[in-house]
Amino acid sequence: MSELIESTAGAPMSTAYLMRRLWRESIQGKLTRIYLAVVLMMITAGATAVTAYIFKDVVDEVFIAKDQIMLWRVAGIVLVAYFVKGAANYGQSLVMNHVGLRIIADAQNRLFRHLAALDLAFFQHTPSGTLISRFTVDVHQMKVAVSNGITALGKDLTTLVGLVTVMFIQDWRLALASFFVFPVAIYPIVRIGKRMRKVTANTQEEIGFFTTVLNQTFQGIRVVKAYGMAAYEETRIAEVVERIFKLNFKAVRSRELARPIMETLGGLAVTVIIVYGGSRVIAGETTAGAFFSFNAAFLMAYDPMKRLANLNVSIQEGLASAQRLFSVMDRASEIIDKPSAKPLPATQGHIRFTDVYFSYNADVHALRGLNIEVASGQTVALVGPSGGGKSTILNLIPRFYDVTSGAVSIDGHDVRDVTLASLYANIALVSQEVTLFDDTVAANIAYGRLGASQDDIEEAARNAAADAFIRELPSGYQTMVGERGLRLSGGQRQRLAIARAMLKNAPILLLDEATSALDTESERYVQAALTKLMQGRTTLVIAHRLSTVVDADMICVVEGGCIIERGTHVELLAKGGTYKRLYDLQFAESELVDQAPTAEAG
Predict the structure, then answer these.
(1) pLDDT value at 188 more than 80
(2) Residue 598: pLDDT over 50
(3) What average pLDDT does this structure show over 370-374?
(4) Is 427-505 a domain of CATH 1.10.150.170?
(5) What average pLDDT score do residues 376-404 get?
(6) 3-state SS class at 494
């Protein structure tokens, strides 16, 4: 089976390639346990063959010859055979389950390590539900295929070989006559397997999309309810569920089609055995015991024979999952350390953008010939209309993206020439969208500095004006913040993010509209905390509210990917350009807000 598969997950991969890679990455390191399992499977197969073979003595020596001694001997052999079979079966089941679960755990660990090293662009273009389905559905399906394949080859095949041996020992002519089942069954089983791989790939793709839709809907449930879109979301979910239902049922139809094929062929084989074998017994060419032993072996062989026939279907399902998993694992990150990369030395935080051009795609430049210099300990604010390139500037400093041309340097070191780990260690980020994990308050503060003491955590919280509200929480610093910190207010979440940055104590601070989504009182607390955080650090601030950056050492007005104005607050107001227009507009808006209560009262 060297057919190619087409998948939305990536380029076609041959069955042979996928099997070799599964062997290398998931099986080869577990051979000791697999060998043990195979030995136990062979013991199980041997015990099964013995129970089939002993039927000859049961009929000929016990039922016909009425030998009392043979009765007890046969009974003892059967008892021991079934005990050995049960014990070996239990042992191989434990070993293979351990191997299967280890395959899942190892694959999930490898996948996460790889994903964590990928660049930001990958995550921005890949739905989270698709990635989650790789960790759950695909990895599990791959494990099932590997486990079933090993079990089939180790247990079912050896059992079948043992039982076929018994059949040939008892009546080789009858054995040959009954084997017409195998070549007839091969073609439809292979066809079913091909269909199953395609259906499985489509099903898993839909499950990934379904997970994404659910995640988005639950995260945006307030918007869904506020805009009365529950019915729309129900319809959208129902459509995805219906597609998954149809694909699953199609898979069931394809999978179960093997059953009537095998049942029919098995029935034909049994008919041949009864007619031809019965004729030989009547003609005295074989004994009734041999005939019954042959039948027992054939009937016992029927189950492993069916499992082997269905093995191709199971393997094709697993290979579809392996294809999707490997397509992610083969995705190389565009942001990696150079072979010659060295750690960034203890930094003063001097940042320089030199003739920087950057494009998210080849057609449009997000930044065009940008030149900025931020001296050590200086605060530079980036202001201007949305879409001008402010966030892009910030993203280039920690190498979330690489420049298209030009250079970004820290203390004279091009960020592309230093290790990513040392670069991240020297930068702290506080953004408008605070990321908190469903863990304790203390763990979230210490996220950037694992192993920090409780005293250090509390000091950072005090500096971030967060200690007071933390102590009012049900369990203080051990309070769980909930998914994305939803058990806290926006201002509280923001102050925890500032405390995290304070505890990290990095020399470079990036603030991405850290106060724009807060109310006036929360902004006052957060702004005070930010002012303390910025002391002694090189800081780049993206600000929507110009009143928060009037004290910056330099303000750059960014528009259309260029800096169109730069200077202090006073200098830019004096120029009477874009900055003054933006400032006057915000000042007028704030005056209207201040006068609104008076107007209402009047």
Answers:
(1) no
(2) no
(3) 92
(4) no
(5) 90
(6) helix
What CATH code is assigned to 17-329?
1.20.1560.10
DSSP β-ladder status, 405-410 and 427-431: unpaired
Q: What is the 3-state secondary structure (H, E, C) of 383-437?
A: ECCCCCCHHHHHHHCCCCCCCCEEEEEECCEEHHHECHHHHHHCEEEEECCCCCC
- Write down the residue that tokens 């890679």 correspond to: 21
DSSP code of 561? T
- The pTM (predicted TM-score) of the whole model is 0.72
pLDDT at 305 over 60: yes
Q: Could you identify the residue written with the tokens 């169109």?
A: 564
556: CB partners within 8 A, 6+ apart: 372, 380, 381, 382, 383, 563, 565, 566
The kind and range of the H/E element at 511 are: strand 508-512
Q: How far is 204 from 132, CA to CA, in rounded Å?
A: 11
Residues 229 and 177 sit within 8 Å (Cβ to Cβ):
no
Residues in the chain: 602
DSSP state of 62: I
Query: For residue range 125-163, what is the model confidence (pLDDT) as tens digits?
Result: 887 777 888 888 888 888 887 887 787 777 788 888 888
Tell me the helix, strand and coil percentages in the chain, rounded to 5: 65, 10, 25
Distance CA 484, CA 405 (A): 36
Tokens of 137: 């559905």
17-329 with 342-425+510-517+539-602: one CATH topology? no
Separation of CA 380 from chain center: 39
In this structure, what token pair is assigned to residue 373?
A: 């210099």
Architecture of the domain made up of 342-425+510-517+539-602: 3-Layer(aba) Sandwich (3.40)
CA–CA dist 374, 379 (Å, integer): 7
Contacts of 260 (CB under 8 A, 6+ apart): none
Torsion, Cα 97 101 106 111, to 10 degrees, reads: 140
Element (H or E) spanning 380, and its range?
Answer: strand 379-383
Amino acid identity of 397? I
pLDDT tens for 308-354 read: 767 777 777 788 888 888 888 888 888 888 999 999 886 788 999 99
- C-alpha–C-alpha distance, residues 461 and 454, integer Å: 10
Rounded to whole angstroms, the Cα distance separating 471 from 378 reads 34
Provide the percentage of residues in the chain whose pLDDT is more than 90: 14
Interhelix angle 15-22/288-329, nearest 10 degrees: 90
Token digits of residue 553: 């050492």
How far is 512 from 382, CA to CA, in rounded Å? 9
Q: Where are the domains of the chain?
A: 17-329, 342-425+510-517+539-602, 427-505
SS3 label, residue 299: helix
Could you give the CA distance from residue 389 to residue 366 in angstroms, rounded to a whole number? 6
Say how far apart CA 455 and CA 67 lie, in whole Å: 87
